[in-house]
Write a structure and sequence with these properties.
642 residues, mainly beta, 3 domains, 14-stranded parallel β-sheet, ten-stranded parallel β-sheet, 53 strands, 5% helix
Length: 642
């Protein structure tokens, strides 16, 4: 229980001795033949700094956009790190995209030629858009895999032509649902009016319950499409529940913001209300802006990232990523990648997208990260930290990727603000790191909202499955206002969800609202859920156990405020409950309507709690209070402190 007790301003940064090394400068107007030692003789590329710097050196980057992948030639040391920093007042972007141009209007004659290999292109929305003068084309090699193509106009991502047209908000797309008569691998839908064979070979994205998946269309007729394989995990299309989208046909290129890429002909088509060459049109070319997979004791500070990301490696240590501004950190549209098993489908992107932090004692702090098909941050390895970050609009493909995907162990995730995510704000898994002694994770003082956008059976903080979590603490988090875009069943949306047999967790002092299943949900199916401590939470909970002896032994639920569902199965399994204030008693909060859940002087939650040192200290009463806020104590706050 003491494991949950730590102050809001915990995890101080160890002071580093002042550097006494050399300073180099980089500017787009520079030259790599210069000495780089002043703003009058700067290098042109950050990579030149990376080639020459030794421990203790600093590279100051002047304003501009740098289209490169920086690979350090050497690491710093603990007392003499190597630093890449935006110069004072500079606006610096390391970009993974490069400009493309040479667009020409597509003509009726071009449509006739395209129809020789794709007869459906004629007499389509595409041909209508061509006739209206809205379709342009250029020759460009974007590779053979269309599912990794990413195109931007004036720094905003375009979308691949598809049906239904989803709109340009990646976390709020227009959704289409399988209709009555759908079954197994066949989607029935009266809105599907394209002629027979139109969708053959197209790519299909499906989503249902907790599964997002991709496959191809085997055959199609007006009113239905049949997939190569049924969606994994559930192995069926569910009427009125399975959402779907279809892409890969030029006939759908007909709306603002859309593109179509012909990989065989190496031609990019773009919808435009005017000539695209009058805009900045770019395509993603580089996955990494900084490749730190073999670097240690390296700092990247104040750098912007566009259509690219940063990765450390298993041997990296002492890397600090500070005050980044990252947009479009990852992109892909193929989730399943040919797999038919459930696990590798739902976990697409969890370990290899977003800012990828592997190794030990590395950290991401004070950063603004947004717009990623996968994670905002992947926290791998051991003893790494993510603190004071603002993360939003990530996991737009709706897999188990997250705002912060926590893997490995002994990780610290505190004071982050996370919003608008496809599934969970924090996805907490458990993996041992070879050669290192495992320890608990600390997930605390985070503010998470707008989760469950593209997937269900989820939570703001989600953890699974059948792992012994070594006292991992989930405490002082504010978990509120999930925002599922789907109209299907909303089962399983909670603040914290310990799914399928998670054990040895401390879940304390969390607050939630707007969650169907309450602030906490424990699922003890599978191996059972044991030795968890659920203390002083506000917002209710759901316990998902069958009446089976021994399924929840060692788990204690005390000092909480709010309705508790599922008590029969949980208590039959050995779970212990005491001193909780259930829904039939008004706790008399200060202002529940405006989510101020401190206790008034008249609250029945005062002087009621079992004292738990390190968890419910601080009340001015003789006995601690129930719920997440101790009466008379300063109210704690969550989220990024910026």
């Amino acid at each position: 229980m003491v494991a949950a007790g730590h102050p809001a301003a915990a995890h101080p940064v160890k002071p580093v001795k002042p550097q006494t090394g050399s300073t180099y400068y980089v500017a787009p107007s520079g030259t790599d033949a210069a000495n780089g030692r002043s703003t009058r003789t700067p290098f042109q590329h950050i990579q030149k700094c990376a080639d020459v710097m030794v421990p203790g050196d600093t590279c100051l980057v002047l304003s501009g956009t740098y289209e490169e992948t920086v690979v350090p030639a050497r690491s710093g040391t603990a007392d003499r790190p190597i630093t890449y920093r935006a110069a004072p007042g500079a606006q610096v972007t390391v970009s993974g995209a490069s400009r493309i141009g040479g667009f020409e209007p597509v003509t009726a004659a071009d449509v006739t030629e395209i129809a020789r290999t794709d007869p459906y292109a004629a007499d389509s929305q595409f041909s209508d858009a061509v006739a209206a003068g809205h379709i342009y084309r250029t020759d460009v090699d974007l590779g053979s895999d269309v599912t990794t193509v990413q195109v931007f106009t004036d720094k905003k991502m375009n979308i691949e032509a598809q049906w239904p047209y989803p709109g340009l908000d990646l976390l709020d797309p227009t959704l289409q649902y399988a209709g009555a008569g759908s079954a197994e691998a066949t989607i029935a839908d009266p809105d599907q009016t394209r002629p027979a064979g139109y969708w053959n070979g197209a790519r299909a994205l499906t989503g249902y319950w907790y599964i997002s998946a991709t496959t191809t269309v085997k055959s199609s007729d007006p009113g239905s499409v049949t997939l190569d394989v049924a969606p994994p995990c559930v192995h069926k299309v569910v009427p009125k529940e399975t959402r779907y989208a279809l892409s890969g046909k030029i006939g759908e290129l007909a709306r603002p913001g859309e593109w179509f890429y012909d990989a065989a002909a190496k031609q990019l088509y773009l919808y435009g209300t005017d000539d695209p060459d009058g805009h900045v049109v770019e395509a993603k070319r580089r996955t990494l802006g900084f490749d730190l997979t073999k670097a240690s004791h390296t700092t990247v500070d104040g750098i912007g990232l566009f259509a690219t990301t940063i990765a450390t490696g298993p041997t990296s240590t002492g890397v600090t990523l500070d005050s980044l501004k990252g947009q479009y950190l990852s992109h892909y549209t193929d989730i399943t990648r040919g797999a038919t098993d459930c696990g590798s489908t739902v976990t697409r992107g969890v370990g290899d997208t977003g800012i990828i932090v592997d190794g030990t004692f590395n950290k991401v702090v004070n950063s603004d990260l947004s717009l990623s098909a996968g994670n905002g941050i992947a926290l791998r390895g051991q003893n790494n930290t993510a603190t004071d970050n603002v993360i939003h609009d990530v996991d737009y493909m709706g897999t188990y990727a997250a705002g912060i995907a926590v893997q490995g162990n002994s990780q610290t995730v505190t004071h982050n603000t996370i919003s608008r995510v496809g599934r969970s704000g924090i996805n907490l898994q458990w993996n041992e790191v070879e050669g290192l002694t495992p320890g608990k994770d600390v997930i605390a003082y985070n503010d998470i909202s707008g989760y469950a956008r593209m997937s269900l059976d989820v939570a703001a903080i989600y953890t699974c499955c059948s792992a012994w979590m070594m006292g991992t603490s989930l405490d002082h988090n504010v978990l509120h206002d999930p925002a599922p875009a789907t109209t299907s069943t909303t089962f399983g949306i909670s603040g914290i969800y310990a799914d399928n047999g998670q054990s040895d967790l401390v879940i304390a002092n969390n607050v939630g609202w707007g969650n169907r299943e309450g602030t906490v949900m424990l699922n003890g199916l599978g191996t059972g859920s044991h030795d968890n401590g659920v203390y002083n939470n506000t917002g209710g909970m759901t316990l998902f156990y069958v009446k089976e002896p021994g399924q929840s032994t060692g788990t204690k639920i005390s000092n909480n405020i709010g309705m508790i569902r599922g008590l029969d199965g949980a208590t039959a399994g050995g779970l212990e409950l005491s001193d909780n204030l259930l829904q039939d008693v008004d706790p008399l909060f200060v202002d529940a309507a405006n989510h101020d859940y401190r206790l008034t002087a008249q609250s029945p939650a005062r002087n009621r709690a079992i004292p738990l040192p390190g968890i419910n200290d601080g009340s001015t009463d003789a006995v601690p209070s129930l719920g997440a806020f101790q009466y008379g104590a300063p109210a704690w706050t969550a989220g990024a402190r910026r």
